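2 proteins. here.
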Amino acid sequence: MSNNDVQILQNGELPPAFYCYGTRDPFYDQFLANADAVEEAGVRVERLQLDGRLHGFGYRENWFDDYDNFLTDVFSDKGGNAMNKKIVTAGRLLENPAYDRCMPDL
């Protein structure tokens, strides 16, 4: 179970989040609901959806490069550009406007 209360998530000062999930995972709907709530709370969210995959797909699905690119982008950015939301789904990257709040200095 995840916390999907947007107000609580807003108060949590969460860092950018990367979600990687398979469409046949029994927790698929929970991943979507939590990612939506985190995103609504103003947190940068990147999603990688693996079509037809079950839970526990591990390293064989070649998601490490996407995660590495996400982390590289998050930790290399010093300002508002880190809040640009990127969603990867079915092999397409969707760019969306930057968010208002910036990631705190690490």
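next one coming up
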Amino acid sequence: MRLFLIAATALAVSAPAFAADQLSASDYVKAARCAGVAEALDVDTSNVDALLKSQRRGRTPYVLNKAFEIRREAKADARRTKASDRSRSEAELSGACAAFMSNDSSQMLAGTPQS
């Protein structure tokens, strides 16, 4: 019985630490959108792809499917825009997507980027 209580206490203490390193579902989907826009503009997506891969575990199928759809739609939308309208997509990458695209994923985990 005592061993059970020790194990339960250890799990309770470690659970918040795991949650603190997890993006919210909406931030996960936002990161997927950023990846789609970046792909369309031929920008390196290795950082955001690594972030999405590391944050995939524990996601519901709904969130994973929504992120896939949003990424695909963002990529298609960014590719459809005329060269003169690319500035909007580029502004999104340098603004709302900057934290997702950075090398330092801890920057993203510290707080939500301002959009």
